Amino acid sequence: MTSFDGAGGLATTSVTTSETLAHVDPEVYAAIQGETQRLRETIQLIPSENYPSAAVLEANGSVLTTKYAEGYPKRRFYQGCAWVDAVEDLARRRARRLFGAEHANVQPHSGSSANMGVYFAALEIGDTVLGMDLNAGGHLTHGSPVNFSSRLYRFVAYGVDPISERIDFGQVAALAREHRPKMIVVGATAYPRVFDWAAFREIADSVGALLLADMAHVSGLVAGGAHPSPIPYADFCTSSTHKTLRGPRSGFALCRKQYAEALDRAIFPGLQGGPLEHVIAAKAVMFHEAARPAYREYCRAVVANAAVLAETLLSEGLHVVTGGTDNHLVLVRLESAEPAGRAAAAALERAGLIVNKNTVPGEQGTAVNPSGIRLGSPAATTFGFGADEFREIGRLVAGVVRATEDETLIARTGARVKEMCAAVEARRDVQAGTEGAAERVAALA
Ligand code: DSN
After folding, report:
1. Is the CB of 48 inside a 6 Å radius of any atom of ligand 1?
2. pLDDT > 90: what percent of the chain?
3. For ligand 1, is residue 112 a contact (CB within 6 Å)?
4. Where would I find the H helices in 208-240?
5. Residue 237 in 3-state DSSP?
6. Which atom of ligand 1 is closest in space to residue 49's alpha carbon?
């Protein structure tokens, strides 16, 4: 059993003083305690979530939130920025080194604002952009009709082949020839296969388009050597930081040197005001952790565990989109007369298995009532689950999905989920040498 130190963030403090949260605001404290308990007793299978380490949480909750620091290190509009300059420089340097990028901007508050920053840096309002259709696995900011991206730019959507359910490069090339986009956006929230960055670069070059790799879902795998890097191919790369990267809830953007000034200006003052230096500190810690050998091991386990999950779901007779996974996520199309994603996700939650309902390629339902569910391995791998547990998780998921109204089965599954969580925590405690841990493991066996 390998522990991936992220779950250390679930530790709770027993010290209470007149200034601690428990005393000052018992209601917020109770909600945080409740959420901590939920995270310990249920299995987190939403592929875009993860457990940050105790060190990331500590930086995120630090006094650096005090400081106004509009501008960039050594070019601030406020005095007193020596320490936040040091932190932001560390974060930028570590991001560049981790990904081998020429320039990093660590101020975006999220993946969405990183994307907006890149659009502001590289496009004029009304420019044409190719992006992946949300139903095929894309992201809201890649041109969804309900998002700012499609209101400011003329987005044209590419999708996946209806049979293979993989990106249809013939279609991407044909759309590029027809629409001559200024930019092609590559990246997704629900695509379980490797992105062929080189193929996209070739298409972009054939029409003189810029290439943006929104690697939010796979950036951790890229950093950990478990997914090809877009850096050699893309003009810009963006990401959120709380997914496979296991950082705080935030974002960042990378680019080639020639776009550095435009990108920085687009983020500040173009888009945001004062940077969140406490979050930037947490991102610095995240980049540091992601550069360690243990993180590469974690990424290998994430991919291996997702593969086990996909294989198990397939062997249980479910339709796994594209027939499997190369990365951290598994998309399941629930074959039924009516869209069944919402009922399946709700039943799984009652069983302690936390997934999200999701649209699937060729979706006949809607985003709020779609035909699929999306699962992933990053958080549960951080928690300490290995291949054997993922096989069991797959069987439990399939059982609930087949019988979403069988409350007896759901309650039995929920009890087993709690046992599995307790066993993993106990094993982690043994590794950490916590007092009484071995006895707890023996009692759970
Ligand atoms: N909402 C995110 C996800 O769950 O994938 C994408 O930003």
Report:
1. yes
2. 91
3. no
4. 219-223
5. strand
6. 4
Three-state secondary-structure class, residue 132: strand
Alpha carbon 218 to chain centroid, angstroms: 7
Its CATH class, for the domain covering 63-290, is alpha beta
Cβ–Cβ under 8 Å, residues 237 and 253 = yes
Q: With a 6 A CB cut-off, is 219 part of the ligand 1 pocket?
A: no
Residue whose CA is at the smallest distance from ligand 1 atom 3? 48
C-alpha–C-alpha distance, residues 184 and 328, integer Å? 24
What is the C-alpha separation between 279 and 419, in angstroms, rounded? 34
Q: Domain map of the chain by residue range?
A: 63-290, 293-444
Stretch 245-254: mean pLDDT? 98
* Closest C-alpha to ligand 1, atom 6: 189
CB within 8 A of 178, min separation 6: which ones?
Answer: none
**Rounded distance between C-alpha atoms, residue 244 and residue 227, angstroms:** 11
CB 191 within 8 A of CB 135: no
Does ligand 1 have an atom closer than 6 angstroms to the CB of 107?
no
Residue 370: cis peptide before it, omega within 30 degrees of 0: no
Are 363 and 371 a contacting pair, CB within 8 Å?
A: yes
pLDDT, the chain, mean: 95
Q: What is the pTM of this model?
A: 0.94
Name the strand (E) or helix (H) holding 420: helix 407-432
pLDDT of 445: 61
Give the C-alpha separation, 29 to 237, whole Å. 37
Order of strands across the sheet with 210-214? 103-105, 251-255, 236-240, 210-214, 183-186, 128-132, 154-158
Angle at 5 between CA 296 and CA 222, to 5 degrees: 25
- Please name the residue that has the structure tokens 């307790």: 422
User: What class has domain 293-444?
Assistant: alpha beta
Q: Indicate the top mutation candidate among 243, 355, 358 to test ligand 1's pocket, ranked by most ligand atoms within 8 A of CB.
A: 243
Express each pLDDT in 10-36 by its tens digit: 665 556 677 899 999 999 999 999 999
Radius of gyration for the alpha carbons in the chain, expressed in angstroms and rounded: 22
Cα–Cα distance measured from residue 383 to residue 396, given in angstroms and rounded to the nearest whole number: 18
Residue 105 in this model has a pLDDT that exceeds 80:
yes
> What pLDDT is stored for residue 15 in this prediction?
62
